From TrEMBL:
PANTHER family: OS01G0519700 PROTEIN, PROTEIN FAR1-RELATED SEQUENCE. This is MULE transposase domain-containing protein. InterPro entries: MULE_transposase_dom. It comes from the Eukaryota. Residues 34-117 form the MULE transposase domain. It holds the Pfam family MULE.
């Protein structure tokens, strides 16, 4: 069409990090901060020194399932295997793309984003009951087994029936992707949120603005990945 729709960028050191440490991949999306106003997708891993390493940068014109499938197809081709774990926020299009392209990967949803969504949609309905709701929710979240989770969840909804419509429609069916009873049984390098990548996106915001061309943006991002490698190497000495 003559119009840029998607671009997947990685470098030799980034690919090497992905192939070494790609069992757990963390994904995050920042809003458009370039001359095309295209969102920047960032994929990262945790390396052997426990440091965040960026393994792919992607810009895409849409955040729908088809676009995410294209991105994950290229991530899969670059890695050569399906990650055991992929961590992201709660996005329906991305979740569907993971199921389609990475069916063997266990998709973990960022518990921080889960809680933010619950706060936004449930807190106004509960008012004075909110502190107790929050206390009980985290007790449910930390349930030691699936059976214990189900028991606590049922009691939880009975205590706060006004929250049931939202929780039942939006959180219960994804419980295996965020509740500790399931997540703690997986090797996640202790990752429960997308916080590592969001912090990295905070750095990326300093590297580009609304007038930044993609050429300049990716040059800076690739330099950032090289800096990560250097710092990781120094940490291992």
């Amino acid at each position: 069409t003559g119009v840029l729709q998607r671009l997947f960028v990685s470098s030799a050191p980034m690919i090497d990090a992905l192939q070494q440490f790609g069992d757990v991949v963390i994904a995050d999306v920042a809003q458009g901060r370039n001359v095309y106003n295209m969102p920047l997708n960032l994929f990262s891993v945790v390396d052997g020194a426990g440091r965040t390493r960026n393994v792919a940068y992607v810009v895409q014109d849409r955040e729908d399932q088809e676009s995410h499938e294209w991105v994950l197809t290229h991530l899969l081709a670059t890695y050569g295997n399906q990650p055991r774990i992929i961590v992201s926020d709660q996005d329906a299009g991305f979740s569907s793309a993971v199921q389609s392209i990475l069916p063997s990967s266990h998709h973990i949803l960022c518990i921080w984003h889960i809680w933010q969504n619950i706060t936004k949609n449930v807190k106004p309905k509960l008012r004075g009951k909110w502190p107790k709701f929050a206390e009980v929710f985290w007790c449910v979240y930390k349930a030691p087994s699936p059976a214990a989770f189900e028991k606590r969840w049922t009691a939880f909804l009975q205590m706060f029936p006004s929250a049931e419509p939202y929780l039942g429609a939006n959180q219960y069916h994804t419980r295996k992707s965020w509740a500790a009873a399931w997540v703690r049984t997986k090797f996640t390098v202790n990752v429960r949120t997308t916080g590592r990548v969001e912090s990295e996106n905070g750095v990326n915001k300093l590297l580009g603005g609304r007038k930044t061309t993609l050429t300049d943006l990716f040059k800076r991002l690739l330099c950032r990945a090289d800096d990560q490698l250097e710092h990781s190497t120094q940490a291992c000495k």
